[in-house]
Each structure stands twice: as C-alpha cells, then as structure tokens.
Automatic annotation (TrEMBL):
<dbReference type="Pfam" id="PF01253">
    <property type="entry name" value="SUI1"/>
</dbReference>
<dbReference type="InterPro" id="IPR048517">
    <property type="entry name" value="DENR_N"/>
</dbReference>
<dbReference type="Pfam" id="PF21023">
    <property type="entry name" value="DENR_N"/>
</dbReference>
<dbReference type="InterPro" id="IPR050318">
    <property type="entry name" value="DENR/SUI1_TIF"/>
</dbReference>
<dbReference type="InterPro" id="IPR046447">
    <property type="entry name" value="DENR_C"/>
</dbReference>
<feature type="domain" description="SUI1">
    <location>
        <begin position="133"/>
        <end position="200"/>
    </location>
</feature>
<dbReference type="GO" id="GO:0001731">
    <property type="term" value="P:formation of translation preinitiation complex"/>
</dbReference>
<dbReference type="InterPro" id="IPR001950">
    <property type="entry name" value="SUI1"/>
</dbReference>
<dbReference type="InterPro" id="IPR036877">
    <property type="entry name" value="SUI1_dom_sf"/>
</dbReference>
<dbReference type="GO" id="GO:0003729">
    <property type="term" value="F:mRNA binding"/>
</dbReference>
<dbReference type="GO" id="GO:0003743">
    <property type="term" value="F:translation initiation factor activity"/>
</dbReference>
<feature type="region of interest" description="Disordered">
    <location>
        <begin position="99"/>
        <end position="140"/>
    </location>
</feature>
<comment type="similarity">
    <text>Belongs to the DENR family.</text>
</comment>
<feature type="compositionally biased region" description="Basic residues">
    <location>
        <begin position="112"/>
        <end position="124"/>
    </location>
</feature>
<dbReference type="GO" id="GO:0002188">
    <property type="term" value="P:translation reinitiation"/>
</dbReference>
<dbReference type="InterPro" id="IPR005873">
    <property type="entry name" value="DENR_eukaryotes"/>
</dbReference>
<protein>
    <recommendedName>
        <fullName>Density-regulated protein</fullName>
    </recommendedName>
</protein>
Length: 216
C-alpha cells in the first residue's frame, strides 16, 4: 500500500462504514439473524413500564377490552361503572366515537358485518322448564312394584349419581331409564319425601309431587 492509498478518500470511507457497523452491532437489543441482518431481541423494551397491568372484568372474567364481545355486555358495564368508573367512562367515550363514525359512513359500511360478527359468543337461552320433582309407583310383574322419579335434572342434579345414591340408600337396584327418569326397584315412594330434601337441600318438599300409582 502506498502512502497515497493510506490517505485516500476511499480508505476514509471504509473506516467510516466499519465504525458505523460496529456501533450498530454493539447497540443493546441487536441480534444477528441468519442472513446477517440485525433484529431486535425478545425481552423488556425501553419506555415500557413493567410489570404490565391488565384489568379484568368481574362479570365476564375477561380483560375489560373484550367486554363488548360478551353476550351480557350490560352486566359488564354495570360492574365497570361500580368498580372501575374511570375505565367505564373511557369505554363509553370510545363507544360514542365509534357510533359517530358509523353514522357518518355510507350505506356500504352499514351493510358490512359488525365487529365481533360470528366470533361473538351466543347468550345461553334461559331454561324456562319449571322445577318440579315427581314420584310415582308402577307395577312390576304381578306382585312387585318400582318407584319412578322424574324432574331431578331440572335442579341440575346428575341422574347417574342420584341413581347410585338411591341404590345404596335402599339396598336395591336403581338405574336411569330416560332423559329425566330414574327407576328404583321396590316401593320407596313415601321415603323419598324425606330423603330427597336431605340429600339435595335445594329441593324443598313442596317441589316434590306424588303422582300415585301409574302404569308403565
């Protein structure tokens, strides 16, 4: 290398380029990828306060940002208004802003599927089935009889568990024979008026109806 090359502008440019590259590689968070490019490393970021705080709704148990997708959004809003009034006001203001934007849009925008769409959870239909347990006696053969119990499922009672309980309690056969029916071997209809409320306190004796003798 000649003295003229050592002081040439090209050499100064190479020095500047090398120095800039080293500064980038030495900068925090820089990781060399397979292609030789610099990418940000995973981990805490500057300017972000840790730990990150996430607010959850006491009604739907999801982060409050997702309350609007919950079927019972009104209950979520009531809970937020009572427990997180500042966040409630912020969400109301955001909602009003979206309504104004929707009103200013054209007809094509109105026809588009709303936010959430098919992904929204469907509200469970309320079960209007009256809660009532019925007991009856039915003949089995010429001299024997069975006791039939229906309506336990209206109180969210597992029929298999109930059938097993009756079989153990009366030391006899007991099985689920229908969607909401249990057949107990033997005539134990009268005893059930005391046993059922003792086993399941949510079933008051007034909810138990005696249908008498029925044919199966």
């Amino acid at each position: 290398m000649t003295p003229s090359d050592a002081n040439s502008p090209a050499r100064d440019l190479r020095k500047t380029s090398l120095s800039s590259t080293l500064q980038v590689l030495r900068s925090p968070g820089c990781v060399m990828a397979a292609e030789g490019e610099c990418s940000l490393a995973a981990g805490p970021r500057a300017g972000v306060k840790y730990p990150i705080s996430v607010l959850y709704c006491g009604n739907c148990t999801m982060p409050i940002e997702y309350c609007e997708y919950y079927p019972e959004y009104d209950k979520c809003k009531a809970w937020l208004e009572k427990n997180l009034p500042k966040e409630f006001e912020r969400m109301i203001k955001l909602g009003e802003g979206e309504e104004v934007a929707d009103a200013s849009g054209n007809d094509d925008d109105k026809k588009r599927q709303k936010r959430g769409g098919k992904g929204m959870m469907k509200a469970k239909k309320k079960d209007d089935t009256p809660k009532q347990v019925t007991v009856s006696r039915a003949p089995r053969g010429k001299k024997k009889s069975v006791t039939v119990v229906t309506g336990l499922s209206s109180f969210d009672i597992d029929l298999k568990v109930a059938a097993k309980f009756f079989g153990t309690k009366f030391a006899c056969g007991s099985s689920v024979t229908g969607d909401d029916e249990i057949v107990i071997q033997g005539d134990v209809k009268d005893e059930l008026f005391d046993i059922i409320p003792d086993k399941w306190p949510e079933i008051d004796e007034d909810f138990i109806e005696d249908l008498g003798d029925l044919k199966r």
